[in-house]
Amino acid sequence: MAEIIDTPQNTTNQIVHLQADGIKTVIRYLSAINPSGEKCVKPPEAKALAAAGIRLGLVNEGFGDFAHGGISAGAGERDGEFCAKYAATVGAPAGACVFFAVDVDAGPAQITKLVLPYFASIKAAFANSGLRIGVYGSGAVCSSVTGASLAELAWLSCSLGWSGSRAYLAAKPTELVLVQHVPTTLANLDVDPDDALGDFGDFLPFGAGA
Q1: Is residue 173 part of a domain?
Q2: CB contact at 8 A, 119 and 80
Q3: Strands 189-196 and 4-6
Q4: What is the pTM of this model?
Q5: What is the CATH number for 159?
Q6: Residue 126 lies in a domain
Q7: What is the mean pLDDT for each group of 10 consecutive residues in the chain (210 residues)?
Q8: Predicted local distance difference test score (pLDDT) of residue 26
């Protein structure tokens, strides 16, 4: 049974089921493009998780792809500035990590022209935040972004057919701290189970450090 899940749904009303299923950490979304939507975690949900002793992880996903201009230097400035400010409102302490999703099989030219500038803008926005930056995506994206020192931690998408993903998983570099599995339903929620390979910057909201 998974102890770590990520979900785009508000978990507040399912906490008793999360506890019954042994969930230790829920990874929830931040969204600069729709901060009022259900996908974006709010302070009351974070407080409810903390009261239940469940840790919180954070991932930002705007459009997550290239079609909407969602991954670019400008989008990174928007997402980075939003997350650097918003994370504290859901109880994120210094040392917590916000992952930023590249939810598409990016090719080499897209990584060079769009993904790396996206993360460079995020790194600039996070400069004085005390937060760590993570990258979610394919093996090629994770290795490129961490290799350029634009993120500390990597979270490998469950889409193992994407570029470089199987080789990256087999190599298990030190920055690879989360591995996602295929979607399922758990605690009445649509979730992806995840395995932790190391410290991935989750935290007890409004509590002890990450």
Answers
A1: yes
A2: no
A3: antiparallel
A4: 0.96
A5: 3.20.20.80
A6: yes
A7: 89 95 96 94 97 97 83 96 98 97 96 98 97 98 98 97 97 97 87 94 82
A8: 97
CA distance 92 to 198: 19
Task: Count how many domains the chain has.
Answer: 1
Give the separation between CA 188 and CA 55, rounded to whole angstroms.
19
**Residue 210 maps to a domain:** no
How many CB atoms are located within 10 Å of the residue 20 CB?
Answer: 10
DSSP string, the chain: --SEEE-SS--GGGHHHHHHTT--EEEEEE-SS-TTSTTB--HHHHHHHHHTT-EEEEEE-SS-STTTT-SSHHHHHHHHHHHHHHGGGGTPPTT-EEEEE--S---HHHIIIIIHHHHHHHHHHTTTT--EEEEEE-HHHHHHHHHTTS-SEEEE-S-TTSTTHHHHHHH--TTEEEEE---EEETTEEEEEEEESS----B-TTSS--
Please state, in angstroms and rounded to a whole number, the distance separating the CA atoms of residues 169 and 138: 10
Give me the pLDDT at residue 68, please. Answer: 82
d(C-alpha 111, C-alpha 145), whole Å:
9
147 in a domain, yes or no? yes
Largest CA distance in the chain: 46
Give the residue numbers spanning the domain of 14: 4-196
